[in-house]
Amino acid sequence: MQVNIKERPAQVEIKELPDYHVAYIRRFGEYGAEIGASFGKLLQWAKPRGLVENGTTLSVFWDNPDITPPENCRTDACITVPGSTEAWGDIKLQTLPGGLCAIHHTEATNSELLEAWQWMFKHWLPNSGYAPANRPPFELYYNDAALHPEHKWIVDICVPIAAY
To answer: Looking at 18-149, which runs of residues are DSSP E strands?
Structure first.
C-alpha cells in the first residue's frame, strides 16, 4: 500500500550546513541504481588512506529526475576528506558549498527514501515559504543499510533552500 506523499508525517529542520570537501565518483543513470558499486570503489580507495573512520559519506544529486532523462541523471558518491587529499584515477575532489538547508532525518528503505524525496519537493517545499537554492540536494548517511536489521538507511535528506 503506497502512502500519499501529502500525508507523510515528517519533521523538517532548517539548518545552516558547512562546506563539504569531498572525494567522489560520479555516475550517470537512474537515481539509486548501481550507486553501491561507486561507493564500494570509493571506500576501497579511502580505507587504506585512513579516510573512512573520520569521513562522512553522502550522495549528491545534480539533476531533476522529472526533467532529466534517467540515463543522464548525475549522482556523486562522496566521502568527506581533508583539504590535503589528492585525487586519484576516477576519484575526483570538489567542495560542496554550505548554506541553508531543509533537513529531513529518516530511517527508510530505498523505496521509502524515494517517497521521502518526493514529499520534500512536492509537498513540503511548495508549502514552506522557502525557495530552492542553486545548490544540489544530497543525502548524509549515518549507517550502512546492509548492516541494519530491516535493511534501512539512517539518513538526512538535505534540500538547499533560500528565502523568497
So the answer is: 20-28, 57-61, 74-80, 92-96, 99-108, 130-132, 138-141
Which sequence spans correspond to the domains of the chain? 1-18+97-131+148-164, 20-96
User: Domain 20-96 is of which CATH architecture?
Assistant: Alpha-Beta Barrel (3.20)
pLDDT in tens, 71-105: 999 999 999 999 999 999 999 999 999 999 999 99
Rounded Cα distance between 63 and 125, Å, is: 17
- Which helix (H) or strand (E) segment holds residue 47: the answer is none
Query: For 121-153, how does the pLDDT look when each residue is reduced to its tens digit (9 = 90+)?
Result: 999 999 999 999 999 999 999 999 889 999 999
